[in-house]
Amino acid sequence: MLTFANVNSFYDRSHILHNVSLEIPTGQITAILGRNGTGKTTLLKTLMGLTDRSEGQIRLESDDLAVLPTFRRARAGIAYVPQGREIIPDFTIRNNILMGAFARTDGKREIPPLVAELFPYLMQNLDRNGGVLSGGQQQQLAIARALAADPKIILLDEPNEGIQPSIVQEIESIIVKLNRELGLTVLLVEQNIPFVRRAAQRFAMMEKGRVVEFGGIERLSDDMVHRHMAV
Ligand SMILES: Nc1ncnc2c1ncn2[C@@H]1O[C@H](COP(=O)(O)OP(=O)(O)OP(=O)(O)O)[C@@H](O)[C@H]1O
């Protein structure tokens, strides 16, 4: 279980997250929902220690992550696939993937078999630069980099944003597979409600930096979506 208890988070003097308390069960997909600018990305960044300052507790089992620097949180088993993917365009696909492996605690610096199985196209093009890939392929690369860390929890920030529809389905099925077949815990920021209903077991709805609704996905009503997500 990953637990946020009374978490507040700040960029400089801007107070963005307000008293967030949330339980993320192991082995499930939890979708983080809400309008633009409501703090979903900030929630993921706070979990990784990437905002300027935060208060409150973030526990992974019995460890308090909130006191750890970002690299220690990565080594604790949390891998982050940021919005916009942030691959390094001048690095080869191989080296982009291997960057994730530096978060491993067993010293292995290799592309895991799982990545080879999920992303045959990347494996066939390991020596090409990441920058030549399409948006959807770069998203796959960012997921591959996260998996190279051998994580327990993967954070995905709008993985389908700006991606051509043919690849969206591929990425969706990889996300579901990571959870259903490999047991990964997934924290997913996502705007596509039909996909959320298919993939996630739980959700948290955010509004103005607060979690206003959370629970099993069956509780996510159309009315709730309309109230908190319609623009
Ligand atoms: N680096 C930053 N410095 C100052 N304020 C920031 C910074 N990043 C985000 N914010 C502010 O924090 C608030 C929450 O932003 P955040 O990106 O977490 O929202 P979001 O729900 O993920 O939205 P989106 O769907 O647009 O990504 C917004 O008001 C935003 O302007």
UniProtKB/TrEMBL annotation:
Q: Which UniProt keywords apply?
A: Amino-acid transport, ATP-binding, Nucleotide-binding, Transport
Q: Which domain of life is it from?
A: Bacteria
List GO molecular-function terms, semicolon-separated. Answer: ATP binding
Which Pfam family name is an example for this entry? ABC_tran
Q: Which residues form the ABC transporter domain?
A: 2-231
Task: List each coiled-coil range.
Answer: none
Q: Which PANTHER family match?
A: HIGH-AFFINITY BRANCHED-CHAIN AMINO ACID TRANSPORT ATP-BINDING PROTEIN, HIGH-AFFINITY BRANCHED-CHAIN AMINO ACID TRANSPORT ATP-BINDING PROTEIN LIVF
Identify its protein family. Belongs to the ABC transporter superfamily.
Record's function text? Involved in beta-(1-->2)glucan export. Transmembrane domains (TMD) form a pore in the inner membrane and the ATP-binding domain (NBD) is responsible for energy generation.
User: What is the name attached to this protein's record?
Assistant: Urea ABC transporter ATP-binding subunit UrtE
Which species does this protein come from?
A: Rhodopseudomonas telluris
